[in-house]
Structures are given as C-alpha cells and as structure tokens.
Amino acid sequence: TLIEYLDQFMILSGDCNNDGEINILDIVALSAAILGDLDFTPSQMEAADIDGNGELNILDIIAIINLILSR
C-alpha cells in the first residue's frame, strides 16, 4: 500500500535498529556502532545522531536514554 511504501522513508529519531520503537535495543545497537562492531546504514546514522552533529557518540546515547525515560 501507499502507507507502507512511505513508511520506509520515515526516520524515527532514536530508533537505531529501525524496528519502529525506541528502547534499550537501540542503545545497544548505537553502542556497538560507536565501538565499531556494527555498521549503520545512512538511515540508521540519521536516526542515531540525535544531537545532529554528524557524529555518533555518548551524547547520542544519553539523548536516547532521555527519550526512553521521558515516556
């Protein structure tokens, strides 16, 4: 359907593993990417770079934790 087609272009900020939810699994994925154990796609990079500085770092992890805790 059209909605399913458009959904593939939607990026949920903080959803690093692209499962449609923001949770601890996103923090684990982001940590692995920062340590070099996991390669992110461009859309995952965009979702993970919460502060928008073009780098994945501890500040993005903290921002995702704050997103999770603010729910």
Task: From the structure above, extract its key features.
4 helices, globular, single chain
Description:
By secondary structure, the chain is mainly α. 52% of the residues lie in helices and 0% in strands. The protein is built from 4 helices and no strands. The protein has helices at residues 2-7, 24-35, 42-48, 58-69. Helix 2 (24-35) packs antiparallel against helix 4 (58-69). The radius of gyration is 12 Å and the shape is globular. The mean pLDDT is 93.
What is the CA-based Rg, rounded? 12 Å
Query: How confident overall, as mean pLDDT?
Result: 93
Name the structural class: mainly alpha
End-to-end CA span? 30 Å
Estimated share of beta-strand residues: under 5%
Quaternary structure: single chain
Beta strands, count:
0
- Shape from CA axes? globular
What's the helical proportion of residues?
40-55%
Could you describe the largest sheet, including whether it forms a barrel?
none
Number of helical elements: 4
| Secondary-structure element string | HHHH
Low-pLDDT regions:
none
